[in-house]
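FAQ: What does the model actually see?

It sees only this:
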Amino acid sequence: MGSAGHAAGAACRARRVEGALAPWSPAGHSGSRSVQKVSFILSWLFGAALIALSFFVTAETIARKLFNFSFQGADELGGYVLAIGGALSFTVCLLERGHIRIDLIHDLMPKSVQAVLNWLSAIMLAGFGLFLAYYCALVVRDTLIYNSTAPTAWATPMIVPQSIWYVCLLAFSITSFILAVQATRRLLAGEFARLNVEFHPKGALDELRDEISDIEKRR
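And it is asked to produce this:
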């Protein structure tokens, strides 16, 4: 009886761990496949831009070393890529719940309090997104008014990289606003459990699920 009890207990614990590590979709939001697809596309775009930049820098280095020639734009192009890629990563981080939250006592609170805190985090991110959308629009407007160009050999019209940069920031603003509306609907409907699943801070088990899911996809 003792060994049978131990075996049953071990099986129960194994089922709990297996359930905890079940495949998970980004942010747990509705339409998770769409969320995964958007996150993948944005990540791919950023990665492709970085790879293209690395080839350009390699060509610049070889040209300088062997032919005493320079394209005179590696630093400038690198700045554009990092600025645009950073703006893209805002949305990816949001969809993947990658923003850091201090959750020392979060899981110790009642579910209703957790729901309010998770809703508040979504609202604050949306507020930050609207802040970026407004003030960065002023930057782009001034660039357009003054017809600003980069003080470099390329003399790039700044409206070009800034427009792409602003569109990427706008994607973050719109996404954060949509998620804030979704969190508000969950809160007003009293769907605390679902709100907590979709918006709670990403913990160690969530990260472990992601790693296991990535390993399985590579097989």
